[in-house]
Amino acid sequence: MKTVLITGVSKGIGRALMQKFLDEGFDVMGTAYSGDVPEIHERLSIFDLDLASSQSIAACADSVISTGKKIDILINNAGILADEDETTVVVDKLRRTLDVNLIGPVDFTERLVSSIVSGGHIINISSTAGSLELAGKGESHFPLHYPCYKISKAGVNMYTRTLALRLKKDDITVSSVHPGWTKTDMGGEEADITPEEAADGIYSIAVSKPETGGFWFRGERLPW
Ligand SMILES: NC(=O)c1ccc[n+]([C@@H]2O[C@H](COP(=O)([O-])OP(=O)(O)OC[C@H]3O[C@@H](n4cnc5c(N)ncnc54)[C@H](OP(=O)(O)O)[C@@H]3O)[C@@H](O)[C@H]2O)c1
Predict the structure, then answer these.
(1) For a pocket test of ligand 1, which of 185, 186, 196, 217 has the largest count of ligand atoms closer than 8 A to its C-beta?
(2) Distance between Cα 169 and ligand 1 center (Å)
(3) Is the pLDDT of residue 57 over 80?
């Protein structure tokens, strides 16, 4: 049986991903921060994780490792949008955003790399908001907004690239994936797709073996 580890399964895209992988027969390890996630399935285990705390990251990674299970797919999904309506960088929000969206996932992944199987896949949930190429070119609904979030996702994309190069020898694929503009607490009601549709797209990429180090939306390659 294959095992997937997904961060942030309490709601939104993470919750839909958890359900999708359970439906597809995976063993699912999920993490929750403030949300309460009942272990509703015999193939589901939930771990506490605060990506802003190195102590919590270390404890969560140790708990995952102590299960003795090897991870086939790691999905770094959890994230925050701390910017509100401002278009300038509020430094306290930038620190918080980088902690949760970038440094936390990097720390978590690095602690778990040795538990990922050869042939495995690490997926960093990114966003077109983190694309240098697309920034300010009109593709975004919010060209001037969310500077902290955009900076964090650009960093995530570079982590994908650097880790992909490093893990190529171990046959571990590393991808950045844009889920689509999704109706969640983060994406809002106006968004284009449901969390289930986003999860279907991410699942297809996760179980395929795309060229490592890519940035994907469904089957399409996005510009960095
Ligand atoms: N929605 C969109 O349109 C959209 C578009 C592009 C990319 N994305 C990306 O997709 C991913 C999921 O977003 P979403 O829309 O599903 O957001 P969401 O509904 O707001 O869910 C965010 C998840 O992140 C977790 N989280 C928040 N702070 C955390 C922390 N300090 N430590 C650990 N986990 C924490 C939450 O856990 P708790 O509930 O347990 O606190 C929750 O499960 C994010 O990486 C986001 O940037 C979303």
Answers:
(1) 186
(2) 31
(3) yes
Tens digits of residue pLDDT in 204-223: 999 999 999 999 999 999 99
Confidence of residue 140 (pLDDT cuts 50, 70, 90): low
CATH of the domain at 14: 3.40.50.720
What distance in angstroms lies between residue 211's CA and the mean position of ligand 1's atoms?
A: 26
pLDDT in tens, 80-126: 999 998 899 999 999 999 999 999 999 999 999 999 999 999 999 99
- Token match 């109706």: residue? 183
Cut 0.90: pTM above it: yes
Q: Which residue has the tokens 């920034």?
A: 135
Number of domains in the chain: 1
**What is the average pLDDT value for the chain, to the nearest integer?**
96
In angstroms, the CA 142 to CA 63 distance is 39
Q: Tell me the CA–centroid distance for residue 179 and ligand 1, in Å.
A: 11
Rg (C-alpha) for the chain, rounded Å, is 16
Q: What distance in Å separates the CA atoms of residue 13 and residue 15, rounded to the nearest whole number? A: 5
Between CA 199 and CA 18 the distance in angstroms is 9
- Range(s) of the domain holding residue 212: 3-221
